[in-house]
Write a structure and sequence with these properties.
This protein is an alpha/beta fold. It has helices spanning about 55-65, 80-95, 120-130, 150-160, 185-195, 210-215, 225, 230-245; strands at about 10-15, 20-25, 45-50, 70-75, 100-105, 115-120, 145-150, 165-170, 200, 220. The strands form two sheets. Strands 3-4-5-6-7-8-9-10 form an eight-stranded parallel barrel, surrounded by four helices. The protein has a two-stranded antiparallel sheet with strand order 1-2. The chain is globular, with a radius of gyration of 17 Å.
Length: about 250
């Protein structure tokens, strides 16, 4: 198996006393620019937990796959938020860099400077808009993603200040077997109508990376194609190789 890692890229870090950023590397890991993404030239890979409470399997997979992907999401929305943070802490203890971990459903007031990547559903966005929660834009380290399912939702999320959007599902998806796929045309429409990066989700496999990228997506998110694979690290490496093949 070809296990070539992603090339090193500058990791931007904001000093606690000022908004000045400096380049640095952490723990000799392949690094990525993980702040606001408007001008990113690369294609992100996200892996999302199964939402089935499979903690042991997820921690093992995260330890194996993180060198091949940009972000690992803890999506376990049935768990209380403190349990999701606990999963994140366990991942870090096993060797996964905190900068790769996204906590779904976390509020904008993340605890300290350890976990600065959060992802919201439409329901969370609506609550924030109704309560006029705007403090998220005052924390320049925080990276916020929002899931959207239409151009209308994408526009609202961008106006709120999302750093990136998940759009899907693009292809038929095992996680949503009863839902009709939205397809590449709708993905292309969303990508061309917003300025923030759009991450394609739903039925993503190595053989359709080229198609979603051609539609304008700046990344892809997967669940079962990696986490339900007999060898998650191999599956993640294949996705990475597919991305590298169309650069």
């Amino acid at each position: 198996m070809n296990t070539v890692m992603f090339e090193d890229e500058a990791h931007e870090s904001r000093k606690s006393s000022t908004s000045q950023r400096r380049n640095r590397t952490e723990r000799s890991e392949p690094t990525f620019r993980l702040e606001r993404e408007q001008d990113h030239p690369f294609f992100e890979l996200h892996v999302i937990s199964t939402n089935k409470g499979e903690q042991v399997a997820m921690l093992k997979a995260a330890k194996e796959i993180w060198p091949y992907v940009h972000y690992i999401h803890i999506r376990e929305k049935h768990l209380p938020l403190y349990e999701r943070y606990n999963w994140a802490k366990l991942m870090v203890e096993s060797g996964v860099p905190a900068s790769r971990i996204v906590i779904n459903g976390a509020k904008s007031t993340a605890p300290g400077d350890v976990f600065q990547r959060i992802h919201w559903s439409q329901a969370m966005l609506e609550r924030a808009r109704l309560t006029k929660t705007t403090e998220i834009r005052h924390n320049l380290q925080l990276r916020l993603g929002i899931s959207v399912h239409s151009l209308h939702e994408a526009t609202i999320a961008e106006e709120y200040g999302a750093d990136y959007l998940f759009f899907g599902h693009v292809y038929a998806s095992a996680s949503k077997p009863d839902s009709v796929a939205r397809g590449l045309d709708v993905l292309s429409e969303v990508c061309s109508s917003v300025k923030v990066p759009v991450i394609a989700i739903g039925g993503i496999q190595p053989d359709n990376i080229r198609a979603v990228r051609s539609a304008g997506a700046r990344g892809a998110a997967v669940i079962s194609s990696v986490l339900k694979h007999a060898n998650p690290a191999h599956a993640a490496a294949l996705l990475k190789q597919a991305v590298e093949a169309v650069k």
